[in-house]
Design a protein that fits this description.
Largest sheet: 4 strands, mixed
Radius of gyration: 16 Å
Number of helices: 10
Shape: globular
Strand order of the largest sheet: 2-1-3-4
Distance between the termini: 20 Å
Structural class: alpha+beta
Helix content: 40-55%
Strand content: 5-15%
Order of helices and strands: EHHEHHHHHHHEEH
Oligomer: single chain
C-alpha cells in the first residue's frame, strides 16, 4: 500500500494553505497518511534554512505577496499578520500526535481547525482551550490536550529526526517512498505520483 508522510507545523501559513488536500489525495489513492508535526525552527537550523525574522526584508515582502496570491487562488481566507503569531507550535503539535495515536476522529479536520484558528480566527493555538475546541470539533477527546502531552513530547523530536533523515527541509513537506514534495504548491505533483487527480 502507498504511504505518505506529511511533515507539517500548525503555525505554518503554508500548512494552512494545504488544507485538506493531502488527506483527499491519500484517500483517492488508497494510501495511508501519517501526520508528522515538527518544530520548523529546529528543522531550519538543521538543514540550512532561516526563520522568518532572520530573512532579508525583500524575502519577507515577497512572502506576503505569495500568501495573498495563494489565498485568492485557493479561495482560502488568511490574515497575513495574525494576532497570535508566532505562537509556540509544540502544544498543538502534541495534540495532533496524540489524536493520531488514539484515533477515532478526523485528522484533516483537526489540522485544518488548528491552522484556521491561527490564520483566520486570531486565536492562540498554544492555549489549551483553543486546542480543546479544535479536538472536539474534529471528533477527538478534548482531554488529549492534557493526556497527550507526554506522548506528544516524546514523538515530536523523533519527527524532526525522521524529517532530517528523509531529506525534509521545510513545511509542509510530503514524502512518498523516495519521492519528495516541498510545499502546498507541489500537491498536484504528489497527486500525480500517487496516480490520482485533485
Amino acid at each position: 500500500m502507498t504511504h505518505i508522510d506529511y511533515y507539517l507545523s500548525p503555525v505554518s501559513p503554508w500548512t494552512h494553505m494545504a488544507g485538506t488536500r493531502p488527506a483527499q489525495i491519500a484517500q483517492a489513492a488508497g494510501a495511508t497518511l501519517r501526520y508528522k508535526p515538527l518544530d520548523p525552527a529546529a528543522l531550519f537550523q538543521r538543514t540550512g534554512g532561516q526563520v522568518l525574522a532572520d530573512r532579508h526584508d525583500s524575502r519577507k515582502a515577497y512572502r506576503l505577496q505569495e500568501l495573498d496570491r495563494w489565498s485568492k487562488r485557493l479561495d482560502m481566507p488568511i490574515k497575513l499578520r495574525p494576532a497570535f503569531w508566532p505562537a509556540n507550535p509544540a502544544p498543538a503539535s502534541y495534540a495532533i500526535i496524540a489524536a493520531q495515536e488514539e484515533g477515532g476522529g478526523d485528522m484533516a479536520a483537526l489540522v485544518t481547525g488548528l491552522t484556521r484558528a491561527c490564520w483566520e480566527e486570531d486565536r492562540n493555538i498554544a492555549e489549551d482551550d483553543v486546542i480543546r475546541d479544535c479536538l472536539t470539533a474534529a471528533g477527538f477527546n478534548p482531554g488529549l490536550a492534557f493526556s497527550g502531552m507526554l506522548q506528544g513530547a516524546e514523538i515530536y523530536p523523533r519527527n524532526l529526526e525522521d524529517a532530517v533523515a528523509a531529506g525534509v527541509f521545510g513545511v509542509p513537506f510530503f514524502v512518498m517512498g523516495e519521492a519528495l514534495f516541498w510545499g502546498q504548491d507541489r500537491l498536484d505533483f504528489l497527486a500525480e505520483a500517487a496516480g490520482v487527480s485533485l
